[in-house]
Amino acid sequence: MKKEEVIKILESNETFNEVLNIIKHECHIRGTQFDEVPIEHFICGGAVANTIYYILNKDKLNSPTINDVDVFSFNYSEDYFPDYSQLSLQKEIQQINLDNTVGSDYAKYFITSFGEQITMKSSEVDGIINKIFLDVFHHNKEYSKDLDKYYLGLINTFDLNCCMAGINRVSKKIVYTDEFVDFILRDMIEVTSLKHPVQTAYRMKKKSTELKTITKNFDSEMSLLREVLKFENGGRLSVGNVWLSRINQDSKLFSENFVWVTPREGDDMVFMGEEGLTYYKVNPNFNSVKIISSIESLYGGTITNLLKWDKKSLLVIWDLFLRDKHNDDIKNKLHEFIFQPKIKRRNISLRLSLLRCLKLSKNYFDCEFNLRDLNRVHGFITYLHINRIQPDIFFVDNVRNQIEVMDYFKKKFVRDGLFREMYFSKVYERIVNKRSVEEDLLSTSLRKKLSSFDFGIKNHWFLFNTYKIKHQFVTDKSFINFRELVEESIDF
Fold this sequence. Notes:
alpha+beta
């Protein structure tokens, strides 16, 4: 099947109805009252994704795999919720309740691309239905009317591409990610979140067995899960008693990739004293994959330091060079861009930050571009970082359109070679204080993005709220080595 055909199937009423009816039937025969679940609650994860996969693969599967059904309720909140590491004892108890219900499969706190903080508050079990309740907080109480954006924010936290789908029963449509479409097309399970390497490894093995998927990429995905442990404190992570029991039932996968470790007295590790946790690290017999070793050799440092401890960049590297998602021409151009001799030992993290656009637009490199174009984009990103601006708000759908955005920025916000910081701040604040315009700004559409800036320029003299702008500016000065950047051209 082609991508367009898969999308047509996913967006058809027939597919939506078939998925919903299968899940209803499964609940009924297993003694769970599905009809009591409010229609506005969002159903997503394995039950929905596995059912879609079954519908498209009835030639090899006799029935869909539905172990349980995860149902999420989004509630608007008046309160601000900090990071889970700062939660009170009461919320820690709620966290234990969540762990017993949804385990490590979902992120329990995340921020959407529009700045809302979404927090899992509590959960309960009704037969095969897991009910999870979430609070959505936005500082100015301007919540999106398009709930699919919250739904996408949730499923984008899932750890495997084969799970990234859900059903919106209000609009009667399937919600899915590009990664899920890619899974359907390639029939290979891939890691999409690096928070829980061992748990994800076991889930990946289980899913590939249940769905009978192609497993030729399994070793590569396992190498990613091993590599990410370098980014953790002391190169170690922990599992609780529930997962320890599961691992002991199938210890081969663990022993082939990881080893248990005993914390030494005085070790400076988060939650070292917490009871019920067992720590593990990478099996020392494994070395990094070739692309990682090459980057470390060229730039002279460990991959953790070169990527500024941003482990999400590993997903970008795997997408580009280890998952065969791009043709040889694109890969060769990107390889040349990253390994240019003239930038030896210079800020690989900023060069790879260009590649973060792949998380926003999977088709970013599906156009005509050359090495000079990539160097110009890199110069633009460097310029933004020097001026403490996050580059993500400027990324669009492909390199050619990116050049247009850069030219627009240079024309509107740079005068005599100097950044018009105060003017840009006023324009930006005007944009983010009107929700519909902010959504255009954060779109990867060239037309919408430029339209949002035009709006801000025309209305920048209005009074505005100064709170929200903070989350789009770079505050970590250690992110960029300015001494090295002085030696490198940042012309764009």
